[in-house]
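User: Fold this; tokens only.

Assistant: Input:
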Amino acid sequence: MHLANYLGYLRKTELNLAEGFRKVGEGHVAEVDVYHTTAMLAKQCETHAEKLAPFVDRYGEDAPTEPDRLYHEFFDGTRQGGLGLIRDLHDLYLMANACDIAWIMIGQAAQGAGDVELFETVNACEGQTSTQIRWLKTRMKQAAPQALLVSS
């Protein structure tokens, strides 16, 4: 059963996303909304990873390396200024979408297996991940005109 692979992938991706949210918030502390929102979203990601524990016990967990490669590709450090902010948010957006598609795949498996508990967990967490993606997109749109049109 390959569900263990996706459970391991998703758990690690959620934890990496949490760390990414924290780094971006700390790297852009002058953007108060970014600082506070990323701290809240990091906690959500950690809660998502915790909610996977009973299913890891049930189905097992592989430890794929893809989430770590993705994380390290994006987060050597945060960037400075307005352009840096949108690039950092862009990286988070890509990582959040990796979580989102993994939630969708696991949800499909939960339906196929008839695992109502897993399916309900997927729906709750994937809904929050979708909200994270919408916030990231909105915040990038808000920052883009200033960052891309005003010389630094």
